[in-house]
Design a protein that fits this description.
Strand order of the largest sheet: 1-2
Helix content: over 70%
Number of helices: 2
Distance between the termini: 13 Å
Strand content: 5-15%
Largest sheet: 2 strands, antiparallel
Number of strands: 2
Radius of gyration: 16 Å
């Protein structure tokens, strides 16, 4: 169970980084009219980052079964 949580946490953090990179590369910016252009990738990166950190924290706090 601990290994599965660690793997899930790391995968979520990788997807969060990819979402953040896609947001910065393709969608971030302010138009000439002053309108901020954002996509769904920015909130998705925060959500995936939080899920990843929670899964990693849970995997480190779990006690090993004997």
């Amino acid at each position: 169970m601990k290994q599965m949580l660690r793997t899930l946490g790391l995968v979520a953090l990788v997807f969060a980084a990819a979402s953040w990179l896609a947001e910065r590369t393709f969608y971030s910016g302010v138009e000439i009219t002053g309108v901020l252009q954002e996509s769904f990738f920015l909130p998705l990166s925060f959500i995936l980052g939080a899920v990843g950190l929670i899964c990693l924290a849970m995997s480190f706090l779990m006690k090993a079964k004997r």
